[in-house]
Amino acid sequence: MPTPAPSLVLVHGAWGGGWVWRRVLGPLRDAGFEVHTVTLTGDGERAHLRRPDIDLHTHIADVLGLVEMEELERVVLVGHSYGGMVVTGAAVELQQQHPGVLAGLVYVDAMFPQPGDGWGVAHPPEVAAARLAAAAEHDNALPAPNAEAGFDLSPEDAAWLNRRHVPHPFGMYRQPLDYDAALLESVPRLFVDCTDPAYPTIEPVRRLVRQEPGWQVVEIPTGHFPMVTTPLELVAHVRGFAEALPG
């Protein structure tokens, strides 16, 4: 009897929501995958739950809660941008609490924290200072950037993101993710590098995944939102990775 396809759990980045994956859901499900999207507490349609004390562990719990409530047994966690922090933390928890459930990890132009790293650890001092000041003025939430600049989006797609992006909870900006890296060494990992234009804050991860063993790296010549700009190419890479995972 063939091994069933893994379940995909898609985790958005800062300011987003489960809605950002809309263009990849149909193709992934048509390919035979069970697909779930997580909207992190305080984002998307859960913006009404935003509060100053939301932190990284809140968002990790969002992902774990979905995996547990849906009783998923063979899971690929897919994180975009800041969502890479979240899926890394969730992956560690799954390895500790539910061994055998995690099948793979996909980082879509996403952060991959080393043990002890936080979201803002690699940001230049002037960027960090500006973000801290902006969050302080908005009840510990970071206003969304204008999607019309720096993301290589069509005017229509930039307007779509601008309408839906909401201020992102900021409690995790300096919060380190402490974990035992050995827990993830044997987990298959794919990094989807969006190269045109390359999003500056992901640059340290781009270098890391090409130096560390255990990574597959693919490139898409598009901006930071491939699920919006090149959804079918992103689907092809995720599908190829997931279908090749050991049963």
TrEMBL record:
Coiled coil: none annotated. GO terms for molecular function: hydrolase activity. This is Alpha/beta hydrolase. Keywords: Hydrolase. It comes from Microbacterium schleiferi. Residues 8-236 form the AB hydrolase-1 domain. The keyword Nucleotide-binding does not apply. InterPro entries: AB_hydrolase_1, AB_hydrolase_fold, Sec-Metab_Biosynth_Hydrolase. It holds the Pfam family Abhydrolase_6.
